[in-house]
Amino acid sequence: xxxxxxxxxxxxxxxxxxxxxxxxxxxxxxxxxxxxxxxxxxxxxxxxxxxxxxxxxxxxxxxxxxxxxxxxxxxxxxxxxxxxxxxxxxxxxxxxxxxxxxxxxxxxxxxxxxxxxxxxxxxxxxxxxxxxxxxxxxxxxxxxxx
Length: 146
Hints:
Layout lengths: L1 H15 L8 E7 L7 E7 L14 E6 L5 E6 L4 E10 L17 E4 L12 H4 L1 E3 L3 E7 L5
Parallel strand pairs: 1-8
Antiparallel strand pairs: 1-4, 2-3, 2-5, 5-6, 5-7
C-alpha cells in the first residue's frame, strides 16, 4: 500500500509541473559585435521585473564564446510562456554590465525584437515574445552606445 501511495504522489507532482521537453529551445544569434574579444552574456526574463539590467531576476543567464564576431545563446528545456532576452558583449570578460557616470552601458547591448530604449533601457513589452514551445529562432543586433 505504501508503494502505491508513493507512486501516486510522484505522478501528481509530475502532472502538476509545467510540461517541458528537452527539444524546447530558444536559439538566439547575437550579431553586430565589433570584435571577437571576450564573451557574450544572455539573460532570459519571464516578466518585466529586473529586465534588462538585473540578471538575478532572469530565469536563466548564460555566457557564451564569440566566433567570427557572432555568438549563439541557446536556452533549452523551457516551458511555454512570454519571455524577453537581454544580451551584452562582455569584452573584458568581467561577467557583469558596466555603466558610465551618466548610466549609459559601456558595453555593447541588445534585446529581443531589437527593442531599444528611449532615454533608458528597452521596455519588457517591446522586447517580449510569445514562446509556444518547440524551437524558436531569434536574432539580436548588438548596439554600442558609447
